[in-house]
Design a protein that fits this description.
With 229 residues, the protein is an alpha+beta fold. The chain is built from ten helices and seven strands. The strands form three sheets. Strands 1-3-2 form a three-stranded antiparallel β-sheet. It is elongated, with a radius of gyration of 19 Å.
Length: 229
């Protein structure tokens, strides 16, 4: 039996509308925030109605239920019907209304890669970043030219542990490195200028994970001291 809440989800976000949204993330995991941003861009009229009814969400919304909560309910509704898989909670970006955020995937058994919140996709000049997009699990635009400027300046070694992937893995590791934002894009919550030398730094996936593992994100310098203890 379909409840009134469930019916409202199906009415506002039909299967035909929901499936392309999830497909946009490919086989990558994505958060409720990722989905909400994509939904707002693809269906602005519907999203405006949701925000007008429930509030915009996030810090300072001053409502228990919000547009973000609605996005979560949409995902939960269609996950129970097999269109998306529910993953675990992770630490939420600072602009989110709670300390944790749910992740999802079209098929949890075929996830290709889970990028960290500040990972740039293939870091002077200033580049505009931060506009909402659908790239992988990231909610913010990444400038590939900015990434390259960062690497040109610092090189491909991890700035924390100094691993060189080509030296360690040969040709397979050539050119591989993550690029980390010293101040996370999620904490900024809006478009802003990024200096590839001042704001970005190359790090390996392990160190990148440790930088983001807790809500009180470590600095490069603090993590470097930690591993040398």
């Amino acid at each position: 039996m379909t409840t009134s809440k469930e019916f409202s989800v199906a009415r506002l976000v039909s299967e035909a509308e929901f499936s392309p949204l999830v497909a946009a993330f490919g086989l990558s995991a994505f958060s409720t925030a990722d989905f909400a941003g994509l939904f707002a861009r693809k269906h602005p009229d519907v999203w405006e109605k949701v925000e007008n009814r429930y509030g915009a969400g996030g810090k300072g919304a001053k409502v228990r239920y919000s547009a973000y909560s609605f996005a979560s309910r949409v995902l939960d509704y269609w996950s129970r019907r097999g269109l998306v898989d529910k993953l675990e909670y992770e630490d939420a970006p600072l602009h989110w209304g709670s300390e944790v955020i749910r992740y999802w995937a079209r098929d949890r058994n075929r996830i290709e890669e889970v990028l960290f919140p500040d990972e740039l996709i293939p870091g002077d000049r200033l580049f505009e970043e931060g506009a909402a997009t659908t790239v992988q699990v990231n909610r913010y635009e990444r400038d590939m030219e900015a990434r390259q400027h960062c690497i040109d300046h610092y090189g491909l070694n991890c700035s924390v542990c100094d691993i060189d992937f080509e030296e360690r893995y040969g040709e397979r590791g050539a050119g591989f490195i993550h690029v980390h934002h010293r101040v996370s894009l999620g904490s900024r919550g809006k478009s802003h200028n990024v200096d590839p030398v001042r704001d970005l730094v190359p790090v390996c996936p392990n160190c990148h994970a440790m930088l983001h593992r807790k809500r009180d994100e470590l600095t490069i310098e603090a993590l470097r001291k930690l591993i040398k203890r």
